[in-house]
Design a protein that fits this description.
single chain, mainly alpha, elongated
């Protein structure tokens, strides 16, 4: 939630609407679910902002990691030929 507040809130909203379409929840429960999703988004935005201000989050490229820590394993990247 903290790393993607808007995206995760959109998923929660869609899940709430899907439950409503399937008649698993009534209108009042749907309203509560959407309200909670918005509250979670607001909380996550504040937490995200605080984390950036404290320096807990930052953008780095793989090249920067390897320059500082040679041999560091980077998840999500395809290894180059010969490695």
């Amino acid at each position: 939630m903290v790393t993607d507040p808007d995206g995760r809130a959109a998923v929660l909203n869609e899940m709430a609407y899907a439950a409503s379409r399937r008649k698993e929840v009534d209108a009042s429960v749907l309203s509560d679910m959407l309200e909670l999703a918005e509250a979670a988004r607001t909380w996550a935005l504040l937490e995200h902002e605080e984390a950036w201000a404290m320096g807990l989050l930052r953008y780095e490229s793989a090249e920067e990691w390897e320059r500082d820590e040679p041999g560091r394993i980077v998840v999500g990247r395809t290894p180059e030929k010969g490695m």
